[in-house]
Amino acid sequence: MRRVCDELVRRGVDLGRARGLEFFAREGDWQAVVYAGRVASVEAWEIDPRFEPGLRARLPRATVRIVDSIPFALRPENQGRFDVVVIDNPQGCFGPDRRYCEHFEALETIGGLLDGAGVVVFNVNRAPFDFERHPDWQARRSGYYALADTSRLSVDFLLGFYRQLFRRRGLATTFGFELPRNAEYLSYLVYRLEQGSGREA
Known about the structure:
Strand content: 25-35%
Number of helices: 8
Helix content: 25-40%
Number of strands: 9
Radius of gyration: 16 Å
CATH architecture: 3-Layer(aba) Sandwich
Distance between the termini: 23 Å
Largest sheet: 7 strands, mixed
CATH class: Alpha Beta
């Protein structure tokens, strides 16, 4: 995450004035603690109340909310409130009745959360671990990416796929890049988005 922040600054993003949102916060010790001191403010959303004490201890400046992030993101009072949204999504299917998968539903809320323009950072699984044991996860990925086999996806495919996905939702990408989170399977994808057609990189 430190490398993500450094690259954003190199590309001209003023983190010091940004309002940040940690979408799936847990205890804040994986991502939010790294960038919380570099943004003007940070809000942390976490569904499990067991993580609240650790979250408040690690992010004393943050506004902490114990909520189901995906429906909460759609509420009118949260529209246009953020400049940087970090979606440190779980892998596989999760949530009530395993209705959510990876970042798929969370990303649908991004256009509303951003204040006209902003940055989204999310996890993407290039080569899922233990994939063969989870047919529901396989089916969700196949439907999302419109591919029969999603056990190994190239970075080029992923960068293009999400650029098109955002465009279909009225969001132009002024830049997008990938940084490996680990060598085996997980990457950060990072996009700067603008509402409307805009100029795309």
